[in-house]
Design a protein that fits this description.
Layout lengths: L4 H13 L3 H8 L3 H8 L7 H10 L4 H9 L10 H22 L1 H10 L4 H20 L1
Helix pairs in contact: 1-6, 2-3
């Protein structure tokens, strides 16, 4: 079965990255409705947006070529789990790089690893609340 570009990008988001449409839209810095329109083929994907998909989804060049040229998914040798691991490795590297640039935050998170489970959970909940506050701001 040959998938269209918009279907391939949706498949990649769901099956490889395991991101919700809302999470992906936040990362792409677009509204979830816009992403929905892209994924349903209701909105044309510009070259600039295609580049952003590649960068944000961290799609390897070989996989992007497969997506663009519309080769059949089942004939592709790269397993979604392998692609997901590559995405997570790149994401973790970016997080480590950011932490290295902010030593106080790095120390705070490092000390958190030594705290009991309830304290970690409380910190995570507060960090999540702060994240949503900043998003709404």
């Amino acid at each position: 079965m040959k998938l269209k570009l918009h279907e391939e990008l949706k498949w990649y988001r769901e099956e490889v990255l395991e991101l919700t449409q809302i999470e992906a839209a936040e990362r792409l810095k677009i509204k979830s409705g816009s992403l929905s329109n892209y994924e349903r083929g209701k909105r044309e994907i510009s070259l600039e947006m295609l580049i952003r998909f590649k960068e944000v989804y961290k799609i390897p060049t070989q996989e992007m070529n497969r997506i663009l040229y519309g080769e059949e998914s089942e004939g592709y040798t790269t397993d979604p789990m392998v692609l997901r691991e590559s995405f997570e490795d790149e994401e973790t590297s970016a997080i480590i790089e950011m932490l290295n640039g902010h030593p106080k935050l790095k120390r705070t998170l490092a000390s958190l690893t030594q705290q009991p489970g309830k304290r970690k959970e409380k910190f995570s909940n507060q960090a999540s609340s702060l994240y949503h506050f900043v998003q709404d701001w």
